[in-house]
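Continuing from the previous page of notes. For each protein in this section, the sequence appears first, followed by its structure tokens. Read the first protein now.
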Amino acid sequence: MSEADPSLPLQGQVAIITGGARGQGRSHALELARLGADVALCDLCEDVATVGYPLATRDDLAETAKLVEAAGRRCVSEVVDVRDLQAVIAFVDEVQASLGSVDIMVANAGVTAIGSICDMDAAQWGNVIDINLTGVFNAIRAAAPHMRSQRSGRISAGNMAQGVAWVARELGLSATIAVPDHAPQAKLAAIERLGGRVLK
């Protein structure tokens, strides 16, 4: 049996990244590929009327997939709206079937509302919440059954650290969560109460 390559700690694992077409999503994809993971990407690939800047395109998604494959990793990519739970579940199930496992979920998809809250309407607020909050839930909900059956998995969800710790506890898994030095003590305590281990 050959020894694992220490430069490829994620070799044999599969990472899924929502909002993976460009920006932080592309950065995550390329770093995970560099560390040895096969990568699955999804993105909306169309503009949202209430978001005041252009979103990623199908060409962006294809370019990120090409870069992952150039790093020697397998890559699956698909246009998926993270606001649609059934679509996210179908995508994650497809990834498991084609790449063999669901080891890492990076719930990265997100948008920013540009402008003052004094001028924001309900549709603009609703789209931000649906993408940035419900989209994170949908990604975790889609990945969690696979991780539970594997008895392992990693979830990255930005500021959703307490939610990740809760999900891990509900699945009977452990959560190790990296937090910045300036994180509030109350937040760290809440993560630990839920059984999470905090890394600073």
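Done with the first. The second protein uses the same format. Note its length before scrolling.
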Amino acid sequence: MSASQRSSVSGSSVSGSSSELVIVVGVDGSPSSIKALEWAVDQAALTKASVEAVTAWHFPNSYGVPLPDGTNYADLAAEALTKAIAVVKNARPDGPAAEVRIRTWIAEGHAAQILLDRSADASLLVVGSRGHGGFTEALLGSVSQHVVHHAPCPVVIIRDREI
């Protein structure tokens, strides 16, 4: 694990094994990504899987050159992921979903590629899709679009609101 990657575990203690079902979910703190995490936790409870919540971050660019501004983007990503997990766990204090093990993975890089890499051995990849209103509501976001076409496992896309 490089300095720009972090991993942690929360939830009940479950021994990891190569046969363990894992649901990878992309979380960026947006409403649709929180809904995706909620769905992934509920699905994990039904299938006896664990969840790996993944967040990607990168330095903002200006004409292709990273702009150092003193902001710790890794910490901001970790904070967004921690808050999203807290929202989901607070909404599910009891029952099977409360027992789901949630691992986290935070890495620097392009979100779609990191999700594809992390889902290489997953049983399912779950992502949110942000609606933009008007005609573009029918279009997938760039990360969702990319993972749907390239994921090594089934993909579920969750909207943050009903159609």
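What the second structure shows: The first helix runs from residue 31 to 47. Residues 11-17, 131-138 have pLDDT under 50 and may be disordered. We return to this in next week's lecture.
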